[in-house]
Write a structure and sequence with these properties.
Blueprint: H1 3-22, E1 32-38, H2 43-52, E2 57-62, H3 68-79, E3 83-89, H4 90-95, H5 101-106, E4 111-114, E5 123-127, E6 135-139, H6 145-149, E7 153-159, H7 162-178, E8 180-181
Parallel strand pairs: 2-3, 3-4
Antiparallel strand pairs: 1-7, 2-5, 4-8, 5-6, 6-7
Helix pairs in contact: 2-3
Length: 184
């Protein structure tokens, strides 16, 4: 091997070493958005899939929550040790006898009633806000059977976006401070 070839080989070796040294050990996760539209898409199942993937916490703000499937998934998450907390619109709870807030509370899930506003019209789920894989679900979709089968509704699922999830979690906490505990 000539001196020039040896020099080129050493340079290539050093370049490979340098690029390996500055390459992060963990590959950054790309944030993603998914739009889901009822009645054409199965929004309820998309919500359930997000809930089922929770690792530490689920925060819910619901104008109306009557979906038995979503409620069951929230109870199951609570039973597997996930910190599940729910805010619901107090007026809707009184107007709609099929609300599942009582089912959640009976299972040990903390539920609070928002009564300060004419309508606590938020429809938000925040999953694992402190995690790099944090997910936020928001849109027009009430967590009801009717929203899936009778209405034109939408959700946007923002995955791997802890900054967005943190912002929504802050708003959730602000609303929680104004809410009253649900009495079984």
């Amino acid at each position: 091997m000539t001196g020039r070839a040896r020099f080129a080989s050493v340079c290539l070796f050093l370049a490979a070493l340098c690029s390996a040294a500055i390459t992060p050990a963990a590959t950054p996760v790309q944030a993603s958005l998914q739009a889901v539209f009822a009645p054409w898409d199965d929004v309820e199942t998309a919500v359930i899939d997000v809930l089922a993937g929770a690792r530490s916490q689920i925060l819910v703000q619901a104008y109306l929550l009557t979906s038995k499937k979503i409620t069951t998934t929230l109870v199951d998450a609570h039973r597997r040790g996930i910190d599940v907390r729910v805010l619901v619109d107090g007026a809707q709870l009184e107007k709609v006898p099929s609300s599942t807030a009582g089912v959640l509370a009976a299972a040990g899930v903390p539920v609070w009633l928002e009564t300060r506003y004419q309508n606590a019209h938020n429809k938000v789920i925040i999953v694992d806000a402190d995690d790099p894989g944090a997910t936020t679900v928001t849109g027009s979709f009430n967590f009801t059977w009717t929203a899936q089968h009778k209405n034109a509704e939408n959700i946007l699922i923002a995955r791997n976006n802890p900054a967005l999830a943190a912002r929504y979690a802050e708003n959730w906490a602000r609303h929680r401070q104004e809410a009253t505990p649900f009495k079984k």
